[in-house]
Amino acid sequence: MFTGIIEEVGELKELKRLGDEARITVSCRRVWEGLEIGDSVAVNGVCLTAVETAPGYFAADVSEESLQRSNLGGLKRGAALNLERAMRLGSRLGGHIVQGHVDGVGYLKSARDSGRGRTYAFAAPPEVQAYLVEKGSIAVDGISLTVSALGDGEFSVAAIPHTVEETNLRRAKSGDAVNLEVDVIAKYVRSYMERGLPRGDGSAASGSLRERLVEGGFM
User: Fold this and answer.
1) What's the pLDDT tens digit per position in 120-164?
2) Domain of 209, in residue numbers
3) How many domains are there within the chain?
4) How far is the C-alpha of 117 from the C-alpha of 206, rounded, in Å?
5) What are phi and psi of 161, to 5 degrees?
6) Residue 148 and residue 207 share a domain
7) Residue 203 carries which DSSP code?
8) How far apart are CA 167 and CA 153, in angstroms?
9) Quick one: 42 exposed, middle or buried, by C-beta within 10 A (0-12, 13-18, 19+)?
10) Domain presence at residue 96
11) Residue 95: inside a domain, yes or no?
């Protein structure tokens, strides 16, 4: 589990293909400290497991699923990577609940100065767009951000100067692919609305929750 508060920006040292999978080696200044083999670490918002650690870098295996559903497989040596170690029980949740499970890949459409910060517009696939609401949470390359506006197939976020400077947004260019993860609570709400809640005896309820709310006059 992660918070979407990036600890540092590392750099892709190597991505070595191993059949349908890969091993990624990331150089970093701080994240390697205290990171043990088997620990989870978010790399551009993708939850990976450390398989090697040493001063100044760590390595992790990337599954075929993660390569297909994220931007990791298309990155080049030297790419900037947002890094966050797993949240510790009892620590502050500074951003929002981020699982490190990418829901889709979008791309940066535009970036413009907005006061002291920057406003970024991202294109999002339909499976991501369906969960977005204004002022709701979205993780972009693992960064916890708030949706400031919604458009046709796109959304915008307003990033404060600190977020820009301390993440890979500082180097982002139009057309860059980004990993997107929606709020997990929104996923459960939609699932309940579409499938309905189970009955007390564990059997499936007839009709979706929405249908039953409409029938009861609540909607």
Assistant:
1) 999 999 999 999 999 999 999 999 999 999 999 999 999 999 999
2) 187-219
3) 3
4) 49
5) -55, -40
6) no
7) P
8) 24
9) buried
10) no
11) no
Distances (CA, A) of 122 to 79, 106, 130: 19, 7, 14
Q: Do 17 and 55 reside in the same domain of the chain?
A: yes
pTM for the whole structure: 0.88
State the pairing for strand pair 117-123/143-151: unpaired
Q: Is residue 199 part of a domain?
A: yes
H/E element holding 193? helix 184-195
CB neighbourhood size of 122 (10 A): 24
The angle at the Cα of 186, spanning 182 to 192, to the nearest 5 degrees, equals 140
Helix (H, G, I), strand (E, B) or coil at 169: helix
Listed residue (71, 82, 33) closest to 55, CA to CA: 33
For 6, other C-beta atoms within 10 Å of its C-beta total: 26
Q: For the chain, count helices (H), then strands (E).
A: 5, 12
Per residue in 157-206, pLDDT tens?
999 999 999 999 999 999 999 999 999 999 988 887 777 666 665 555 56
What's the full length of the chain, in residues?
A: 219
